[in-house]
Design a protein that fits this description.
The chain is α/β, with parallel strands linked by helices. The protein contains seven helices and 13 strands. The chain has a single domain, classed as Carbon-nitrogen hydrolase (Nitrilase/N-carbamoyl-D-aminoacid amidohydrolase, 4-Layer Sandwich), CATH 3.60.110.10. Strands 6, 7, 8, 9, 10, 11 and 12 form a seven-stranded mixed beta sheet that branches. Strands 5-4-3-2-1-13 form a six-stranded mixed beta sheet. The mean pLDDT is about 95.
């Protein structure tokens, strides 16, 4: 058996350093509770840009510009070692961490933000970096498009782990890319919530015959900084819960074993057994004996994409 902890806490919105320090404290707390794997929600560092769903598309330009600047400045440049403190926490606690973050491109333009999820190994190394393939609707005004280089399942002491972000989980071919690599713990950091989303997570557990862990964003009005522009308009004081969280752990086959954790903050612990995955595929293995490669094939380009290649003469 393996023990995991889902973090359902609000970050220090738009403050990278304070949010990373908060994340480290939560990792320590999860480790003290016996967790071998700790999972944060989508864009935890330093907050999901929930305001995009409330601003007028193409309007509110000044507010959008100000908030995007703050989001950009509080994003994480992985190439500049800005995630190192969290990596050190993984090594110190001998624990695997999955964390969603706003990632600032540190290699090319240095101005694009990606919705990224990283898997940090117990030795502190980054085992995988996945950038959201398709930002949803107004998210495209905030985040760049990822590529297939992060569609990987990695080995960890708790099992084979892979991750898709939020509505990427509605992309059947992306799911299949993970199923085909023998995924055992399927992690879905998300801003979505509600019974419909939980039903989707149960479907994935039935389809992939794997453990499914959905780590949801929880956000209240009190989590919005006082200097947030137009706070009273965008988040009136009559509204307390902005997002309910609904973190949940689902066993292969679709049974809910922990959660959903709704309108509540804290750590959601659960025990899982990754060895159950292979056995559960006896009747249904969509990437194995239940596939029909003579009819269906999937080609996945896992190359890191770039608009420029420098050649030395």
């Amino acid at each position: 058996m393996q023990k995991l902890a889902i973090v359902q806490e609000s970050p220090i919105l738009l403050d990278r350093e304070k949010t990373i320090n908060m994340a480290i404290a939560l990792v320590n707390k999860a480790a003290e509770g016996g967790a071998e794997l700790v999972i944060f929600p989508e864009a935890f560092i330093s907050g999901y840009p929930a305001w995009i769903w409330r601003l007028r598309p193409g309007g509110d330009w000044g507010i959008s510009e100000e908030l995007h600047t703050r989001l950009l400045n509080s994003s994480v440049d992985i190439d500049n070692n800005e995630l190192s403190p969290l990596c050190e926490a993984a090594k110190k606690n001998n624990i695997t961490i999955i964390c969603g973050l706003n990632e600032r491109d540190g290699e090319f333009s240095r101005a694009t933000v990606y919705n990224t999820v990283v898997i940090i190994g117990e030795d502190g190394s980054i085992l995988n970096r996945h950038r959201k393939l398709m930002p949803t609707n107004p998210e495209r005004m905030v985040w760049g498009f990822g590529d297939g280089s992060g569609l990987n399942v990695v080995d960890t002491p708790v099992g084979k782990i892979g991750s898709l972000l939020c509505w990427e989980n509605y992309m059947p071919l992306a799911r299949y890319a993970l199923y085909s690599q023998g995924i055992e713990i399927y992690v879905a950091p998300t801003y979505d919530s509600g019974d419909g989303w939980i039903g989707t997570m149960q479907h994935i557990a039935r389809e992939g015959r794997c453990w499914v862990v959905s780590s949801g964003v929880v956000l209240t009005r009190d989590d919005i900084p006082d200097d947030f522009p137009e706070k009273e308009t965008l988040y009136p004081d009559t509204e307390n819960w902005i997002n309910a969280g609904d973190s949940v752990v689902i066993a292969p086959g679709g049974e809910i074993v922990a959660g959903p954790m709704r309108k509540e903050k804290g750590l959601l612990f659960a025990e899982i057994d990754s060895s159950r995955v292979a056995t559960s595929k006896r009747a249904l293995d969509v990437a194995g004996h239940y596939s029909r490669p003579d009819i269906f094939t999937l080609s996945v380009d896992t190359r890191l994409q770039s608009s420029i290649k420098f050649k030395q003469t």
